[in-house]
Design a protein that fits this description.
This protein is mainly beta. It is built from 2 helices and 17 strands. The protein folds into 3 domains: 135 residues, no CATH class; 34 residues, no CATH class; 27 residues, no CATH class. The protein has a 3-stranded mixed beta sheet, with no helix packed on it. Strands 10-11-12 form a 3-stranded antiparallel beta sheet, with no helix packed on it.
Length: 274
């Protein structure tokens, strides 16, 4: 950064007292270049392969995409300011008698008659946070916070939340563990139909393993004949296909006188079972 009206980190008189530059650890960052809170830049190294600087907040290695911002987008008119990802932006200098006050979000401030640029003291963060993201499958939502005073690096805040109730049936949700998001889908299992009874009906029992609906018994018509079982009043005449045995039922008419063997010879006989 070129020469200008001076830089003050804490809002006091430009050039009054020494400013101790913050380390990467003190800033809570681990990659790229970052403002050191004293008008300079500190280099914090590179990320491991497969991660991006800014992927978990400014100057922090992570896997998420990061949107770079310009000096005007972050509202800085002087000094070094973070681009929100991996670099310290050089936002220029101030013309005399103005000084760049980092505690005022890198703004050029006119030195007053008392020789100060604002009240002396420590840098006070002024956080500006976005809205929380949608609750994810890990019951977590995040938001990004930027210190408009430039005292601290951008940070990501986490908030515990309940994923159930967002209107989406996902993240291993089912009707059982999240009926608010997932409709109930029946899963029917039915027993084999019973043997056809003498009233020519048979039944089966059906059960919904998801308990969306009540279990039920279903009845249907059938034909008892042909089941290879001679029952239900079946006879050889009415149902020969079921193996009903032929049982004759003979009736005879007798005519004539009784013979010497005391027998009367029938003159006509017939089988009523056909």
């Amino acid at each position: 950064m070129g020469a200008g009206g001076g830089v003050k980190a804490d809002g006091g008189q430009a050039g009054a007292g020494a400013c101790r530059a913050a380390t990467c650890a003190e800033l809570g960052v681990n990659c790229g270049t970052a403002p050191d809170r004293c008008g300079g830049v500190v280099s914090c190294g590179n990320c491991q392969k497969g991660t991006l600087c800014g992927g978990d907040g400014p100057n922090k290695c992570g896997s998420h995409a990061c949107a770079f911002r310009s000096c005007s987008q972050v509202g800085a008119s002087c000094g070094y300011s973070s681009d929100g990802c991996s670099k310290a932006l050089d936002c220029g200098t101030c013309s005399d008698p103005y000084v760049c006050v980092l505690a005022a979000t890198n703004q050029c401030v006119l030195i007053g008659s008392g020789g100060s640029a604002g009240a002396a003291g420590s840098c006070t963060p002024n956080w500006d946070c976005s809205g929380y993201s949608t609750c994810d499958c890990n019951a977590d939502q995040t938001r990004s916070c930027t210190d408009k005073s430039g005292c601290e690096a951008q940070k990501i805040e986490h908030n515990a939340c309940s994923h159930c109730g967002n209107g989406l049936c996902d993240c291993s949700e089912t009707f059982s563990n999240c009926p608010a998001d997932c409709p109930c889908t029946s899963n029917w299992t039915c027993t084999p139909a019973t043997t056809c009874n003498c009233q020519n009906t048979q039944t089966l029992q059906c059960t919904d393993s998801n308990h969306c609906a009540s279990d039920y018994t279903k009845s249907g018509s059938c034909n008892h004949r042909g089941n290879a079982s001679c029952d239900c009043g079946e006879t050889h005449s009415s149902c020969p296909q079921d193996g009903c045995a032929y049982v004759p039922n003979c009736i005879c008419q007798f005519y004539g006188a009784c013979n010497c063997s005391n027998q009367q010879i029938p003159t006509q006989c017939w089988d009523q079972n056909g």
